[in-house]
Specification:
With 91 residues, the chain is mostly helical. Helix 3 crosses helix 5, helix 3 packs across helix 6 and helix 4 packs across helix 5. The termini are far apart.
């Protein structure tokens, strides 16, 4: 990427916390939990966090730290891969 592309791309001008705050973690959590048919406690256990922290994520009053966000992204990737495989089977 050249310097002008770096300067004009707004995502690159954001600080890490600003970029993280643009992700709707509450929506992501709810979608994954519904897809996997997990309870909030099961999601908290899978993410290695407390139930209270997970509930705050779903409510949108808190966001995950780096390691927890990584675990959540991995769960979302797994869900996406399953959905893609199912879609391919239907065609």
């Amino acid at each position: 990427m050249n310097k002008s592309e770096y300067q004009t791309n707004s995502a690159y001008n954001l600080k890490p916390m600003e970029l993280t705050s643009k992700i709707d973690f509450a929506k992501v959590c709810k979608e994954i939990r519904a897809f996997k048919k997990y309870t909030q406690q099961e999601m908290a256990n899978k993410l290695d966090i407390s139930l209270q922290n997970y509930q705050k994520w779903e409510a949108g009053t808190a966001t995950p730290n780096g390691q927890s966000a990584f675990r959540l992204a991995y769960m979302q990737q797994e869900m996406d891969e399953i959905l893609i495989k199912e879609k391919k089977r239907h065609y």
